[in-house]
Amino acid sequence: MKATRVERTGGALTQRALALVTSVTFVALSASAAEKPFAAPQATEHVSPTSAGSLLQVTFSLALVLALVFVAAWLVRKFKGFGRFGGSAIRIVADTALGPKERAVVIQVGEQQLLLGVTQQQVNLLHVLPAPVGPLPNPPPVAGGGQGGGHPGVDFAAILRRSLGLK
In the sheet that 112-118 helps form, which strands lie side by side, from edge to edge? Predict the structure, then answer.
């Protein structure tokens, strides 16, 4: 019990000492402020003009911050799964752009794969694939670059028929 009283008394002494130091500081600041008349005009201080060194330092700092923002954005895009815990039940197997805002996407949910049509407004189920589709082998180059002026060597119609199991 005596130890508890001593601790309480020590805490109270610390608080009193802190209050005393604060009040002495306040009185000293008040005395120095009283020496100066209120709103008295003061001599203007000379501000040095901006030097080329400080301008260069600010420009370099801004460029460094912008570079860090772009590097962070690139890393986020590169590692899309960063921060995900465990395996996801839905996995994107393949996707391809069909237009500026349209895509065909093959996703795997468990053991089943689905072909989805994705537009800006909606997502449609196009086909349920009977067997899982693995990575497609590179097709032989097609003479004339294929139909519709697409990429040379890629016949989209044949790939779509094969993925739908029609051929």
Answer: 90-97, 103-109, 112-118, 123-129
Regarding pTM above 0.85, the answer is: no
- Asked if residue 136 lies in contact with residue 162, where contact means CB atoms within 8 angstroms, the answer is yes
Collect all residues with Cβ–Cβ distance below 8 Å to 40 and sequence separation of at least 6: none
The whole-angstrom separation of Cα 112 and Cα 91 is: 11
Q: Are the C-beta atoms of 164 and 127 separated by less than 8 Å?
A: yes
The CA distance from 22 to 24, in Å, is 6
User: Using CA atoms, how far apart are residues 119 and 100, in angstroms rounded to an integer?
Assistant: 9
Looking up tokens 């989209």, which residue turns up? 156
pLDDT in tens, 98-128: 888 899 999 988 888 999 999 999 999 998 8
How far, in whole angstroms, is CA 149 from its chain's centroid?
Answer: 38
Distance between terminal CA atoms of the chain?
92
Strands 90-97 and 103-109: antiparallel
